[in-house]
Specification:
570 residues, 21 helices, 36% helix, alpha+beta, 19 strands, binds 6-diazenyl-5-OXO-L-norleucine
Protein backbone atom coordinates (compact mmCIF):
# COMPACT_ATOMS: atom_id res chain seq x y z
CA UNK A 1 0.00 0.00 0.00
CA UNK A 2 1.46 3.31 -1.06
CA UNK A 3 0.16 5.38 1.79
CA UNK A 4 0.29 4.54 5.46
CA UNK A 5 -0.87 6.55 8.42
CA UNK A 6 0.67 6.28 11.82
CA UNK A 7 -0.22 8.76 14.51
CA UNK A 8 3.05 8.16 16.35
CA UNK A 9 5.15 8.82 13.29
CA UNK A 10 2.91 11.76 12.44
CA UNK A 11 3.54 13.36 15.81
CA UNK A 12 7.28 12.89 15.32
CA UNK A 13 7.24 14.39 11.87
CA UNK A 14 5.12 17.31 12.98
CA UNK A 15 7.57 18.09 15.76
CA UNK A 16 10.38 17.88 13.22
CA UNK A 17 8.51 20.18 10.90
CA UNK A 18 7.95 22.80 13.57
CA UNK A 19 11.59 22.76 14.58
CA UNK A 20 12.76 22.72 11.00
CA UNK A 21 10.38 25.25 9.47
CA UNK A 22 12.43 28.34 10.13
CA UNK A 23 10.07 31.03 8.93
CA UNK A 24 6.57 31.60 7.73
CA UNK A 25 6.54 32.28 4.01
CA UNK A 26 4.48 35.41 4.67
CA UNK A 27 7.29 36.90 6.75
CA UNK A 28 7.96 40.60 6.17
CA UNK A 29 11.73 40.04 6.44
CA UNK A 30 14.11 37.52 4.94
CA UNK A 31 15.62 34.96 7.34
CA UNK A 32 19.29 35.69 8.04
CA UNK A 33 22.23 33.52 8.97
CA UNK A 34 25.85 32.94 8.07
CA UNK A 35 26.20 29.23 7.33
CA UNK A 36 24.04 28.99 4.20
CA UNK A 37 20.47 29.47 3.04
CA UNK A 38 17.79 27.53 1.19
CA UNK A 39 14.47 28.70 -0.26
CA UNK A 40 12.20 26.13 -1.90
CA UNK A 41 8.55 25.29 -2.47
CA UNK A 42 8.22 22.83 0.43
CA UNK A 43 9.39 22.90 4.07
CA UNK A 44 10.61 19.27 4.02
CA UNK A 45 12.72 19.97 0.92
CA UNK A 46 14.18 23.15 2.43
CA UNK A 47 15.05 21.13 5.51
CA UNK A 48 16.79 18.50 3.32
CA UNK A 49 19.01 21.25 1.90
CA UNK A 50 19.73 22.72 5.34
CA UNK A 51 20.66 19.25 6.64
CA UNK A 52 23.23 18.90 3.87
CA UNK A 53 24.65 22.38 4.55
CA UNK A 54 24.99 21.54 8.24
CA UNK A 55 26.81 18.34 7.25
CA UNK A 56 29.45 20.43 5.47
CA UNK A 57 27.97 20.33 1.97
CA UNK A 58 28.33 23.27 -0.37
CA UNK A 59 25.58 25.09 -2.27
CA UNK A 60 25.47 22.45 -5.03
CA UNK A 61 25.21 19.55 -2.56
CA UNK A 62 22.37 21.34 -0.78
CA UNK A 63 20.58 22.37 -3.99
CA UNK A 64 20.71 18.83 -5.39
CA UNK A 65 19.45 17.39 -2.08
CA UNK A 66 16.60 19.93 -2.08
CA UNK A 67 15.70 19.17 -5.70
CA UNK A 68 15.61 15.40 -5.11
CA UNK A 69 13.55 15.87 -1.93
CA UNK A 70 11.08 17.95 -3.98
CA UNK A 71 10.67 14.89 -6.24
CA UNK A 72 9.12 13.18 -3.20
CA UNK A 73 7.20 15.86 -1.30
CA UNK A 74 6.21 18.15 -4.20
CA UNK A 75 5.37 15.60 -6.91
CA UNK A 76 3.20 17.98 -8.89
CA UNK A 77 6.41 19.74 -10.02
CA UNK A 78 9.46 18.33 -8.24
CA UNK A 79 10.60 15.37 -10.22
CA UNK A 80 12.87 12.71 -11.58
CA UNK A 81 10.56 12.25 -14.58
CA UNK A 82 10.98 15.80 -15.86
CA UNK A 83 13.81 18.24 -16.42
CA UNK A 84 15.13 21.69 -15.71
CA UNK A 85 17.98 24.15 -15.72
CA UNK A 86 20.61 25.12 -13.17
CA UNK A 87 22.67 28.29 -12.88
CA UNK A 88 25.54 28.13 -10.41
CA UNK A 89 28.16 30.59 -9.22
CA UNK A 90 30.82 28.56 -7.47
CA UNK A 91 34.10 30.19 -6.46
CA UNK A 92 33.14 33.17 -8.64
CA UNK A 93 32.70 31.03 -11.79
CA UNK A 94 29.29 30.97 -13.43
CA UNK A 95 28.02 27.77 -15.12
CA UNK A 96 24.71 26.79 -16.63
CA UNK A 97 23.49 23.21 -16.96
CA UNK A 98 20.71 22.27 -19.37
CA UNK A 99 18.90 19.13 -18.24
CA UNK A 100 15.78 19.94 -20.22
CA UNK A 101 13.81 16.98 -21.57
CA UNK A 102 14.41 16.03 -25.21
CA UNK A 103 11.92 14.70 -27.77
CA UNK A 104 12.10 10.91 -28.11
CA UNK A 105 13.79 9.56 -31.25
CA UNK A 106 10.39 8.51 -32.67
CA UNK A 107 8.93 12.04 -32.35
CA UNK A 108 8.02 13.89 -35.51
CA UNK A 109 6.95 17.32 -36.66
CA UNK A 110 3.21 16.56 -37.05
CA UNK A 111 2.75 14.05 -34.24
CA UNK A 112 0.20 16.22 -32.41
CA UNK A 113 -1.94 17.03 -35.47
CA UNK A 114 -5.05 15.14 -36.54
CA UNK A 115 -5.78 14.01 -40.12
CA UNK A 116 -6.99 17.48 -41.04
CA UNK A 117 -3.87 19.14 -39.67
CA UNK A 118 -5.54 20.44 -36.49
CA UNK A 119 -3.59 20.16 -33.20
CA UNK A 120 -5.02 17.67 -30.68
CA UNK A 121 -4.09 19.41 -27.42
CA UNK A 122 -4.83 16.37 -25.28
CA UNK A 123 -2.07 14.34 -26.98
CA UNK A 124 0.68 16.79 -26.04
CA UNK A 125 -0.68 17.20 -22.51
CA UNK A 126 -2.07 13.91 -21.17
CA UNK A 127 -0.40 10.49 -21.03
CA UNK A 128 3.10 9.46 -22.02
CA UNK A 129 2.85 10.57 -25.66
CA UNK A 130 3.20 14.04 -24.07
CA UNK A 131 6.42 13.09 -22.27
CA UNK A 132 9.89 14.16 -23.28
CA UNK A 133 12.89 12.05 -22.28
CA UNK A 134 13.47 12.91 -18.58
CA UNK A 135 16.57 15.00 -17.93
CA UNK A 136 16.53 15.26 -14.11
CA UNK A 137 18.20 11.94 -13.17
CA UNK A 138 21.33 12.64 -15.25
CA UNK A 139 21.16 16.42 -14.72
CA UNK A 140 21.20 16.47 -10.92
CA UNK A 141 23.94 13.83 -10.92
CA UNK A 142 26.04 15.82 -13.40
CA UNK A 143 25.72 18.98 -11.31
CA UNK A 144 26.90 17.11 -8.25
CA UNK A 145 29.71 15.37 -10.17
CA UNK A 146 31.18 18.71 -11.21
CA UNK A 147 30.75 20.76 -8.06
CA UNK A 148 29.58 18.64 -5.11
CA UNK A 149 31.74 18.01 -2.04
CA UNK A 150 29.82 15.33 -0.15
CA UNK A 151 29.24 11.74 -1.25
CA UNK A 152 26.41 11.33 -3.74
CA UNK A 153 24.63 8.83 -1.46
CA UNK A 154 24.65 11.35 1.39
CA UNK A 155 23.05 13.99 -0.84
CA UNK A 156 20.26 11.60 -1.96
CA UNK A 157 19.70 10.25 1.58
CA UNK A 158 17.14 12.82 2.81
CA UNK A 159 14.88 12.02 -0.18
CA UNK A 160 15.26 8.27 0.41
CA UNK A 161 14.16 8.84 4.00
CA UNK A 162 11.20 10.99 3.02
CA UNK A 163 9.90 8.43 0.50
CA UNK A 164 10.66 5.40 2.67
CA UNK A 165 9.94 6.57 6.23
CA UNK A 166 7.22 9.00 5.26
CA UNK A 167 6.45 12.67 4.94
CA UNK A 168 3.54 14.77 6.08
CA UNK A 169 1.08 15.65 3.32
CA UNK A 170 0.85 19.43 3.25
CA UNK A 171 -2.42 21.29 2.63
CA UNK A 172 -0.97 22.43 -0.69
CA UNK A 173 -0.26 18.86 -1.79
CA UNK A 174 -3.78 17.77 -0.85
CA UNK A 175 -5.24 20.73 -2.80
CA UNK A 176 -3.06 19.95 -5.82
CA UNK A 177 -4.12 16.29 -5.89
CA UNK A 178 -7.79 17.29 -5.54
CA UNK A 179 -7.39 19.68 -8.46
CA UNK A 180 -5.64 17.03 -10.58
CA UNK A 181 -7.95 14.16 -9.53
CA UNK A 182 -9.37 13.64 -13.02
CA UNK A 183 -5.92 13.47 -14.62
CA UNK A 184 -4.44 11.19 -11.95
CA UNK A 185 -7.53 8.95 -11.97
CA UNK A 186 -7.08 8.20 -15.68
CA UNK A 187 -4.08 6.00 -14.96
CA UNK A 188 -4.62 3.14 -12.48
CA UNK A 189 -0.86 3.08 -11.78
CA UNK A 190 -1.00 6.71 -10.69
CA UNK A 191 -4.26 6.37 -8.78
CA UNK A 192 -2.81 3.49 -6.74
CA UNK A 193 -0.27 5.90 -5.25
CA UNK A 194 -1.89 9.32 -5.38
CA UNK A 195 -5.57 8.41 -4.93
CA UNK A 196 -5.27 5.57 -2.41
CA UNK A 197 -8.71 4.03 -1.82
CA UNK A 198 -10.00 6.44 -4.45
CA UNK A 199 -9.29 9.58 -2.42
CA UNK A 200 -6.58 12.25 -2.38
CA UNK A 201 -4.20 11.90 0.58
CA UNK A 202 -5.40 14.06 3.45
CA UNK A 203 -3.35 17.00 4.68
CA UNK A 204 -1.60 16.03 7.88
CA UNK A 205 -1.47 12.34 7.04
CA UNK A 206 1.88 10.62 6.58
CA UNK A 207 2.61 9.15 3.22
CA UNK A 208 5.26 6.71 2.07
CA UNK A 209 6.01 5.81 -1.56
CA UNK A 210 7.88 2.51 -1.37
CA UNK A 211 8.55 2.21 -5.14
CA UNK A 212 10.02 5.69 -5.20
CA UNK A 213 12.08 4.95 -2.08
CA UNK A 214 13.55 1.88 -3.83
CA UNK A 215 14.24 3.92 -7.00
CA UNK A 216 15.96 6.61 -4.93
CA UNK A 217 18.02 4.04 -3.09
CA UNK A 218 19.22 2.58 -6.40
CA UNK A 219 19.90 6.13 -7.66
CA UNK A 220 21.89 6.83 -4.47
CA UNK A 221 24.00 3.72 -5.05
CA UNK A 222 24.50 3.77 -8.82
CA UNK A 223 23.68 7.23 -10.11
CA UNK A 224 21.46 7.87 -13.14
CA UNK A 225 22.14 4.52 -14.84
CA UNK A 226 19.95 3.01 -12.12
CA UNK A 227 17.02 4.80 -13.78
CA UNK A 228 18.09 5.24 -17.42
CA UNK A 229 19.13 1.60 -17.86
CA UNK A 230 18.16 -1.84 -16.55
CA UNK A 231 14.85 -2.82 -15.00
CA UNK A 232 13.66 0.71 -14.15
CA UNK A 233 14.23 1.96 -17.71
CA UNK A 234 12.37 -1.07 -19.04
CA UNK A 235 9.49 -0.30 -16.66
CA UNK A 236 9.36 3.25 -18.06
CA UNK A 237 9.27 1.99 -21.66
CA UNK A 238 6.60 -0.60 -20.82
CA UNK A 239 4.34 1.89 -19.00
CA UNK A 240 4.75 4.41 -21.80
CA UNK A 241 3.96 1.84 -24.48
CA UNK A 242 0.90 0.60 -22.59
CA UNK A 243 -0.64 4.08 -22.76
CA UNK A 244 0.31 5.01 -26.31
CA UNK A 245 3.68 6.68 -25.64
CA UNK A 246 6.89 6.40 -27.67
CA UNK A 247 9.59 6.62 -24.96
CA UNK A 248 12.17 3.83 -25.21
CA UNK A 249 15.07 2.51 -23.14
CA UNK A 250 17.34 3.73 -25.94
CA UNK A 251 16.00 7.29 -25.48
CA UNK A 252 16.68 7.13 -21.75
CA UNK A 253 20.20 5.76 -22.24
CA UNK A 254 21.06 8.32 -24.92
CA UNK A 255 20.00 11.38 -22.90
CA UNK A 256 22.82 13.71 -21.83
CA UNK A 257 22.65 17.01 -19.89
CA UNK A 258 24.61 19.83 -21.54
CA UNK A 259 26.79 22.51 -19.94
CA UNK A 260 26.06 25.63 -21.98
CA UNK A 261 27.46 29.14 -22.18
CA UNK A 262 25.37 31.29 -19.82
CA UNK A 263 23.57 34.38 -21.06
CA UNK A 264 25.37 37.13 -19.13
CA UNK A 265 24.47 40.81 -19.17
CA UNK A 266 24.97 44.02 -17.20
CA UNK A 267 21.92 45.45 -15.46
CA UNK A 268 21.85 48.58 -13.32
CA UNK A 269 25.36 48.07 -11.94
CA UNK A 270 24.95 44.30 -11.44
CA UNK A 271 25.97 41.37 -13.61
CA UNK A 272 23.27 38.81 -14.24
CA UNK A 273 23.64 35.25 -15.55
CA UNK A 274 20.74 33.12 -16.69
CA UNK A 275 19.83 30.27 -19.05
CA UNK A 276 20.60 30.31 -22.76
CA UNK A 277 18.56 28.35 -25.33
CA UNK A 278 16.70 26.03 -25.14
CA UNK A 279 15.28 28.41 -22.57
CA UNK A 280 14.10 31.81 -23.66
CA UNK A 281 14.41 32.93 -20.03
CA UNK A 282 17.89 34.49 -20.06
CA UNK A 283 17.23 36.31 -23.33
CA UNK A 284 13.92 37.78 -22.10
CA UNK A 285 15.52 38.88 -18.80
CA UNK A 286 18.40 40.49 -20.72
CA UNK A 287 16.11 42.22 -23.21
CA UNK A 288 13.92 43.53 -20.37
CA UNK A 289 16.68 44.99 -18.21
CA UNK A 290 18.67 46.23 -21.23
CA UNK A 291 15.74 48.18 -22.64
CA UNK A 292 14.73 49.55 -19.26
CA UNK A 293 18.23 50.83 -18.60
CA UNK A 294 18.33 52.57 -21.98
CA UNK A 295 14.98 54.31 -21.41
CA UNK A 296 16.09 55.48 -17.93
CA UNK A 297 13.39 53.46 -16.22
CA UNK A 298 14.95 54.07 -12.81
CA UNK A 299 14.10 57.78 -13.05
CA UNK A 300 10.34 57.26 -13.47
CA UNK A 301 8.31 57.27 -10.21
CA UNK A 302 8.34 53.78 -8.68
CA UNK A 303 4.66 52.84 -8.66
CA UNK A 304 3.49 55.15 -11.45
CA UNK A 305 2.02 54.40 -14.86
CA UNK A 306 5.17 55.31 -16.81
CA UNK A 307 7.21 52.52 -15.19
CA UNK A 308 4.48 49.92 -15.80
CA UNK A 309 4.03 51.15 -19.36
CA UNK A 310 7.74 50.84 -20.18
CA UNK A 311 7.97 47.43 -18.55
CA UNK A 312 5.02 46.15 -20.57
CA UNK A 313 6.31 47.64 -23.83
CA UNK A 314 9.69 45.97 -23.25
CA UNK A 315 8.03 42.57 -22.59
CA UNK A 316 5.69 42.94 -25.56
CA UNK A 317 8.75 43.14 -27.78
CA UNK A 318 10.79 40.47 -26.02
CA UNK A 319 7.92 37.95 -26.36
CA UNK A 320 7.38 38.93 -30.02
CA UNK A 321 11.02 37.94 -30.60
CA UNK A 322 10.49 34.71 -28.63
CA UNK A 323 8.52 33.35 -31.61
CA UNK A 324 11.87 32.94 -33.39
CA UNK A 325 13.44 30.84 -30.64
CA UNK A 326 13.81 27.10 -30.24
CA UNK A 327 16.37 24.35 -29.66
CA UNK A 328 19.89 25.71 -30.37
CA UNK A 329 20.05 23.56 -33.54
CA UNK A 330 16.94 25.06 -35.15
CA UNK A 331 16.52 28.48 -33.54
CA UNK A 332 16.04 31.38 -35.93
CA UNK A 333 17.60 33.94 -33.59
CA UNK A 334 20.21 33.69 -30.85
CA UNK A 335 21.02 35.51 -27.62
CA UNK A 336 23.71 37.41 -29.54
CA UNK A 337 21.11 38.59 -32.09
CA UNK A 338 18.49 39.64 -29.58
CA UNK A 339 20.84 41.24 -27.03
CA UNK A 340 22.67 43.09 -29.80
CA UNK A 341 23.26 46.82 -29.35
CA UNK A 342 21.77 47.77 -32.71
CA UNK A 343 18.62 45.80 -32.02
CA UNK A 344 18.31 47.49 -28.62
CA UNK A 345 18.68 50.85 -30.31
CA UNK A 346 15.95 49.98 -32.79
CA UNK A 347 13.63 48.88 -29.98
CA UNK A 348 14.38 51.98 -27.89
CA UNK A 349 13.26 54.08 -30.85
CA UNK A 350 9.91 52.29 -30.68
CA UNK A 351 9.49 53.04 -26.98
CA UNK A 352 9.22 56.82 -27.24
CA UNK A 353 5.42 56.74 -27.53
CA UNK A 354 3.51 57.11 -24.26
CA UNK A 355 0.74 54.97 -25.82
CA UNK A 356 0.47 51.18 -25.81
CA UNK A 357 1.64 49.69 -29.11
CA UNK A 358 -0.94 47.14 -30.32
CA UNK A 359 0.86 43.79 -30.21
CA UNK A 360 -0.24 43.06 -33.79
CA UNK A 361 1.92 46.03 -34.89
CA UNK A 362 5.11 44.79 -33.22
CA UNK A 363 7.36 43.06 -35.70
CA UNK A 364 9.95 40.60 -34.54
CA UNK A 365 13.69 40.56 -35.12
CA UNK A 366 14.95 39.81 -38.62
CA UNK A 367 18.57 39.35 -39.67
CA UNK A 368 18.22 42.49 -41.83
CA UNK A 369 17.05 44.53 -38.86
CA UNK A 370 20.40 44.23 -37.16
CA UNK A 371 22.24 45.84 -40.04
CA UNK A 372 20.62 49.05 -39.10
CA UNK A 373 16.54 41.77 -32.81
CA UNK A 374 1.28 24.95 -14.63
CA UNK A 375 3.54 23.55 -12.53
CA UNK A 376 7.17 24.11 -12.02
CA UNK A 377 9.30 24.72 -8.97
CA UNK A 378 12.29 26.90 -8.24
CA UNK A 379 14.87 26.60 -5.49
CA UNK A 380 17.72 28.88 -4.53
CA UNK A 381 20.62 27.95 -2.26
CA UNK A 382 23.67 29.74 -0.86
CA UNK A 383 26.44 28.31 1.26
CA UNK A 384 28.55 30.02 3.89
CA UNK A 385 31.38 30.57 1.38
CA UNK A 386 29.20 32.76 -0.84
CA UNK A 387 28.53 30.18 -3.58
CA UNK A 388 24.98 30.18 -4.97
CA UNK A 389 22.81 27.80 -7.00
CA UNK A 390 19.57 28.55 -8.81
CA UNK A 391 17.55 25.58 -10.13
CA UNK A 392 14.18 25.56 -11.86
CA UNK A 393 12.77 22.13 -12.57
CA UNK A 394 9.45 21.01 -14.00
CA UNK A 395 7.09 18.34 -15.28
CA UNK A 396 5.38 21.19 -17.23
CA UNK A 397 1.72 20.79 -16.16
CA UNK A 398 0.81 19.93 -12.57
CA UNK A 399 1.67 16.20 -12.16
CA UNK A 400 3.01 16.20 -15.76
CA UNK A 401 1.27 13.82 -18.17
CA UNK A 402 -0.44 12.10 -15.23
CA UNK A 403 1.24 8.72 -15.67
CA UNK A 404 3.20 7.34 -12.72
CA UNK A 405 5.48 4.49 -13.76
CA UNK A 406 4.66 1.44 -11.63
CA UNK A 407 7.67 -0.09 -9.94
CA UNK A 408 9.53 3.21 -10.38
CA UNK A 409 7.27 5.53 -8.41
CA UNK A 410 7.60 8.81 -10.28
CA UNK A 411 5.45 10.69 -12.76
CA UNK A 412 6.40 11.42 -16.36
CA UNK A 413 6.34 14.97 -17.71
CA UNK A 414 4.16 16.51 -20.43
CA UNK A 415 6.91 18.80 -21.66
CA UNK A 416 6.21 17.99 -25.34
CA UNK A 417 3.47 20.65 -25.14
CA UNK A 418 6.23 23.26 -24.93
CA UNK A 419 6.98 22.53 -28.58
CA UNK A 420 4.89 24.35 -31.14
CA UNK A 421 2.54 21.45 -32.08
CA UNK A 422 1.15 23.72 -34.77
CA UNK A 423 3.44 26.74 -35.21
CA UNK A 424 1.49 29.97 -34.87
CA UNK A 425 -1.16 28.52 -32.51
CA UNK A 426 -1.17 29.20 -28.74
CA UNK A 427 -0.04 26.45 -26.31
CA UNK A 428 -1.03 25.70 -22.66
CA UNK A 429 0.22 29.16 -21.61
CA UNK A 430 -1.34 31.04 -24.54
CA UNK A 431 2.13 31.39 -26.02
CA UNK A 432 2.43 31.58 -29.76
CA UNK A 433 5.58 29.94 -31.05
CA UNK A 434 7.27 29.51 -34.40
CA UNK A 435 8.69 26.86 -36.69
CA UNK A 436 12.03 27.09 -34.86
CA UNK A 437 10.29 25.31 -31.98
CA UNK A 438 8.51 22.62 -34.03
CA UNK A 439 8.71 19.00 -32.80
CA UNK A 440 11.72 17.05 -34.02
CA UNK A 441 13.49 13.92 -32.74
CA UNK A 442 16.09 14.68 -30.09
CA UNK A 443 15.21 18.40 -30.03
CA UNK A 444 14.71 20.21 -26.72
CA UNK A 445 11.48 22.17 -26.46
CA UNK A 446 11.72 25.92 -25.87
CA UNK A 447 11.33 26.90 -22.23
CA UNK A 448 10.63 30.10 -20.32
CA UNK A 449 12.40 28.96 -17.17
CA UNK A 450 14.78 31.63 -15.94
CA UNK A 451 16.92 30.51 -13.04
CA UNK A 452 19.24 33.47 -12.51
CA UNK A 453 22.22 34.57 -10.49
CA UNK A 454 23.10 38.26 -10.06
CA UNK A 455 26.16 39.77 -8.44
CA UNK A 456 28.18 42.94 -7.89
CA UNK A 457 31.44 43.12 -5.96
CA UNK A 458 30.97 40.67 -3.08
CA UNK A 459 27.17 40.55 -3.11
CA UNK A 460 25.38 37.68 -4.84
CA UNK A 461 21.81 36.51 -5.22
CA UNK A 462 20.02 33.56 -6.81
CA UNK A 463 16.39 33.64 -7.87
CA UNK A 464 13.76 32.16 -10.18
CA UNK A 465 10.13 31.08 -10.36
CA UNK A 466 7.57 28.67 -11.77
CA UNK A 467 4.70 30.05 -13.85
CA UNK A 468 5.09 28.97 -17.48
CA UNK A 469 5.22 31.97 -19.77
CA UNK A 470 5.16 34.39 -16.79
CA UNK A 471 8.48 33.12 -15.41
CA UNK A 472 10.78 35.69 -17.07
CA UNK A 473 8.56 38.68 -16.24
CA UNK A 474 8.03 37.60 -12.64
CA UNK A 475 11.74 36.98 -12.17
CA UNK A 476 12.59 40.31 -13.82
CA UNK A 477 10.34 42.24 -11.42
CA UNK A 478 11.86 40.71 -8.29
CA UNK A 479 15.34 41.35 -9.70
CA UNK A 480 14.47 44.98 -10.50
CA UNK A 481 12.96 45.51 -7.04
CA UNK A 482 16.36 44.64 -5.56
CA UNK A 483 18.86 46.05 -8.06
CA UNK A 484 16.99 49.24 -8.99
CA UNK A 485 14.95 50.06 -5.91
CA UNK A 486 17.03 48.51 -3.14
CA UNK A 487 14.30 46.28 -1.64
CA UNK A 488 15.46 43.52 0.67
CA UNK A 489 14.73 40.14 -0.91
CA UNK A 490 11.57 39.43 1.10
CA UNK A 491 10.02 42.79 0.26
CA UNK A 492 11.04 42.27 -3.37
CA UNK A 493 9.26 38.92 -3.47
CA UNK A 494 6.15 40.05 -1.57
CA UNK A 495 5.28 42.99 -3.85
CA UNK A 496 2.34 42.55 -6.27
CA UNK A 497 3.34 41.82 -9.86
CA UNK A 498 2.17 42.24 -13.44
CA UNK A 499 2.77 40.35 -16.70
CA UNK A 500 2.56 40.88 -20.46
CA UNK A 501 3.63 38.39 -23.15
CA UNK A 502 2.89 40.16 -26.47
CA UNK A 503 -0.09 37.87 -27.23
CA UNK A 504 -2.72 37.99 -25.79
CA UNK A 505 -2.36 41.77 -25.83
CA UNK A 506 -3.21 42.47 -22.20
CA UNK A 507 -1.53 43.19 -18.87
CA UNK A 508 -2.22 40.53 -16.24
CA UNK A 509 -2.44 42.36 -12.90
CA UNK A 510 -2.23 40.92 -9.39
CA UNK A 511 -4.45 42.51 -6.69
CA UNK A 512 -3.04 45.89 -5.58
CA UNK A 513 -0.30 45.92 -8.24
CA UNK A 514 -1.68 49.26 -9.49
CA UNK A 515 -3.30 52.13 -7.62
CA UNK A 516 -6.64 53.13 -9.18
CA UNK A 517 -4.95 56.23 -10.65
CA UNK A 518 -2.16 54.18 -12.26
CA UNK A 519 -4.68 51.69 -13.68
CA UNK A 520 -6.77 54.52 -15.14
CA UNK A 521 -3.71 56.18 -16.66
CA UNK A 522 -2.56 52.89 -18.26
CA UNK A 523 -6.01 52.34 -19.77
CA UNK A 524 -5.94 55.90 -21.09
CA UNK A 525 -2.64 55.05 -22.80
CA UNK A 526 -4.30 52.12 -24.58
CA UNK A 527 -3.36 49.18 -22.33
CA UNK A 528 -5.89 46.43 -21.56
CA UNK A 529 -5.81 45.24 -17.93
CA UNK A 530 -6.88 41.80 -16.75
CA UNK A 531 -7.04 40.69 -13.10
CA UNK A 532 -4.95 37.69 -12.16
CA UNK A 533 -5.02 36.22 -8.66
CA UNK A 534 -1.29 35.40 -8.57
CA UNK A 535 1.79 35.39 -10.75
CA UNK A 536 4.68 33.03 -10.06
CA UNK A 537 6.28 31.85 -6.83
CA UNK A 538 9.76 33.26 -6.45
CA UNK A 539 12.34 31.78 -4.08
CA UNK A 540 15.45 33.87 -3.47
CA UNK A 541 18.69 33.72 -1.52
CA UNK A 542 21.23 36.49 -1.18
CA UNK A 543 24.76 36.81 0.17
CA UNK A 544 25.22 40.38 1.41
CA UNK A 545 28.47 42.34 1.33
CA UNK A 546 29.00 41.72 5.07
CA UNK A 547 28.82 37.92 4.61
CA UNK A 548 25.26 37.47 5.90
CA UNK A 549 23.15 34.96 3.94
CA UNK A 550 19.44 35.65 3.54
CA UNK A 551 16.56 33.57 2.22
CA UNK A 552 13.05 34.56 1.19
CA UNK A 553 10.16 32.34 0.09
CA UNK A 554 7.16 33.68 -1.75
CA UNK A 555 4.02 34.27 0.34
CA UNK A 556 1.98 33.28 -2.75
CA UNK A 557 2.79 29.67 -1.90
CA UNK A 558 3.56 27.67 1.21
CA UNK A 559 7.25 27.52 0.37
CA UNK A 560 9.84 27.83 3.07
CA UNK A 561 13.07 29.70 3.58
CA UNK A 562 15.70 28.64 6.08
CA UNK A 563 19.26 29.45 7.05
CA UNK A 564 22.07 27.71 8.84
CA UNK A 565 23.44 29.56 11.84
CA UNK A 566 27.00 28.95 12.98
CA UNK A 567 27.28 26.16 15.54
CA UNK A 568 26.97 27.49 19.13
CA UNK A 569 30.35 28.70 20.35
CA UNK A 570 31.89 28.84 16.86
O1 LIG B 1 9.62 25.23 -19.52
C1 LIG B 1 8.64 25.96 -19.42
O2 LIG B 1 8.68 27.13 -19.71
C2 LIG B 1 7.33 25.40 -18.87
N1 LIG B 1 7.27 23.98 -19.13
C3 LIG B 1 7.26 25.70 -17.41
C4 LIG B 1 5.98 25.20 -16.79
C5 LIG B 1 5.61 25.94 -15.55
O3 LIG B 1 6.25 26.83 -15.12
C6 LIG B 1 4.34 25.53 -14.90
N2 LIG B 1 4.26 26.14 -13.58
N3 LIG B 1 3.60 26.79 -13.00
Amino acid sequence: MAQSRSSCRLAFLLILLVVAAPVSAASPDPVRGTGGAVASAAPAATEAGLEILRAGGNAVDAAVATAIALAVVHPQAGNLGGGGFAVTRMGGKVSTLDFREAAPAAADHDMYLDASGEPVAENSLVGPLAAGVPGSPAGLWELHQRYGLLDWAQVVAPAVRLAGDGFVVTPRLERSVVKAEKLLGRFPETAAVWLPGGNPPAAGSVMTIPDLAATLLAYAKKGPEAITGGALATAIETASDRHGGILTVADLEAYRPVWREPVIFEAFGWRVASMPLPSSGGIILGQTTGLLELVKWRQAPRFGAERAHLLVEAWRRAYADRVLLGDPTTTRATAADLLDEEWFNFRVGELVSPRATPSADVRNWTPAATSESTETTHLSVADGAGNVVSITTTLNGSFGCGLLVPGVGFLLNNEMDDFAAAPGRPNLYGLIQGEANAVGPGKRMLSSMSPAVAWRENETMALGSPGGSTIPTVTAQVLLNVIVDGDDIQAAVNRPRIHHQWMPDQIAVEPDAFSPETATELERRGHKLKDRSRLGEVNVVRVTSDGIVEAAADPRGPGSAGVVQPAPGS
